[in-house]
Model the fold of this input.
Amino acid sequence: MSLPELWFGFIAVLWTGFFVLEGFDFGVGMLHRVVGRSEHEQRVAINTIGPFWDANEVWLVVGGAAIFAAFPAWYATWFSAGYLAVALLLAALIIRGVSFEFRGKVENPRWRTTWSGTLTVGSLLAPLVLGVALGDLVVGLPINEKEEFTGSFWDLFTGYGVWTALTLVALCLLHGATFLTLRTTGGLRDRANRAARVLTWVALGAVAAFAVWTLALVSDSVTLYVALGAAVVAVAVAAVRVPSDRDGQAFSATAVALGATVLSLFVALYPNVLTSSTNSAWSLTVTGAASSEYALKVMTIVGAVLFPLVLGYQAWTYFVFRHRVSAGPETSEVGAGKAAD
Amino acid sequence: MDPVDLSRIQFASTSIFHFFFVPVTIGLAFLVAIQHTGWYRTGDPERRRLTRFFGTLLLINVAVGVVTGLVQEFQFGMNWSAYSKFVGDVFGAPLALEGLAAFFLESTFLGLWLFGWNVLPKGLHLLSAWLVAIGAALSAAFIMAANSWMQNPVGYETDPGTGRPELSSITELFTNPVFVWGYLHVILASLVTGAAIMLAVSAWHLRRGHEPFVRTAHLAIAVLLPGSLLAVGVGSQLGVVEATYQPMKIAAAEAQWQTCQPCSFSVFQIGGGNQDHTPTQIIEIPHLLSLLATGSWNGKVEGLTPLQRKYEQRYGPGNYVPNVFVQYWSMRLMAYLGTVVALIAVWGAWLAWRKKLSRSRWFLVAATWAVALPFVMNTAGWLLTESGRQPWLVQGLMKTTAGVSASVSTTEIVISLTVFLALYLALAAVNLFLMLRYARRDLPSEQPEEPSEQGAAPVLTY
Done:
């Protein structure tokens, strides 16, 4: 395996990891007002992802920066092509990111509703825009021989890109629902579980159609069949495990479903990194867009040392906060309330 | 306005806004970690309350710092795609390493610290506080290495085929003299910013007789005094280093049009900018500029006019003089306010030594209002550095006009700029509101220190 191939693989891992982790954060963000009846329950829902969401989002930052470093032309063309969409994504991540910290800081219903609203909208828009952007990579954008985007904002909304976005949003919702089921108790847990039951069927339909559409675009890769097959099977497993209250297994299944779906996009993309719909000869490729041997080697060495370390301490965080967040008696003190069984 | 100007405004507003929060995060993270250490060692509940109090202020700032950092990370590709494609081989590496080495560390342990009260063993909880501070300081190192490369490109070779710079030595990126002095300067400025906030909040409470804040006032002064003095010294050394690699930047900062030897320092002047060249009024100190820019009493400083001639010979026709007004005044604003902050620190240290700190009204009022100064200084510092690099995007390698995205229209930039400016204003307002609200609160009430019976009980923190 060459260094550019290795880095393409690593970037695929980073984006897959981002969706597996931040996917349930997005889901919880979208669902916290749906499953949380009272203000207290909504707080409990938000606190299930409290210690994790920020570090989960770093996967996206590193995923973007790794593209910049390893495939500068990919980063440059993709992000300038999707200019307004990227701006929308950033706006969504901004209003969402501050909601966590701001929401609980003032005890006023209107204040809380406002930041709950930004959390919901941001959590919906972010996977939606990212889904379109990832789908566009595969199906292709109008790119000329100078690696410049020649289309307009509306050209970003390809049919496949939009379907990818809807599929990812459905999977994030489901993943968030199984996460909430796993991490909460009582009525909150039961409502999250009921939401997950409905969402499994929505996600199953979306993923199945996504798989067919993807295979219609790219049909010559065995790996792609495996990845898409795994995604469909995983949603089906979730559909069985959710109603039988196997919370851990259901969550694992939705994690695999989301991971396999995102991974399949990168499998379908390879050996391109950004497909040109104008002329396939102008597509940006793994070998053509890669940085120099030395730059990749340096980053490979540093990455090989640091990445396992990162995985280790992040996994440890999940171990530390493995207990369910109880929706027990209400506590009023902001920032210091403690919920006990 | 053309796409270049608009993209520059977007980059400048994002960077300036982001850098309101970065130094607060770095500075306060260290100060909070020190407080936490004090509590860990003594078990004194008052220190625990102070740690939580300033921890809340830190977290409000981190939230805004993190989200504006996202824009910072992605706007290279959005607005500056020609630049990103041209330099990604060199410039991208520190950014990717920053994420792997620093952002993961900072964000993961921030979550552990924030939610770890009564959950983590005390030692690990303390370690989390320090890893947040280290992660924050580390991230500044990578981004400063990337920025220093734009000021003084090193450690690269030009690919004969594409003409693009390619990384040839990662060590040179991190031994770049502009990086070494620039990074030190940023860290000191961050400690000054954090300490100024801690001092201002403590002073406000001391004026109302809240005695526990004597402790944090002392800590803030203990950091502010050496921090502000060293920041001035390191900053002046950074000027000498930059004069070697970017003589235009320093000549413009002094509005020095003709070569001089020895050179006097202009304390205040009217005129002498890009249009008229000769100031109408000037107050100056003989020999001081020679001393500052070269380190010797009779040192020679090259003027803008001869430098412009030299650059034209080397790089072809064009205007190579940065905006002199911005350079001259950002440099003075930073230096003069830096002196004011250092004097406040000396005053505070003297009062603390005489044990009169909590009763000295004048000082407490001055210390409260001085909180605004570091923000003006930090902004001025970045204007000096970045505006002084113009017309270059990468000194000597690529001009700013050549770096923008060809496929992005003026309308699109106007839309995104409007959206971001509106968001920044809203975030600034909310952040200020929450900071004032939480800075004026009483210390958090006593809480049980021991984990409850069921072990790691989850805490509703948000």
Remarks:
- The two ends of chain B are 43 Å apart (CA to CA).
- Strands of chain B lie at 156-158, 165-167, 265-271, 279-285, 392-394, 398-399.
- Chain B has a mean pLDDT of 91.
- Chain B has 14 helices and six strands.
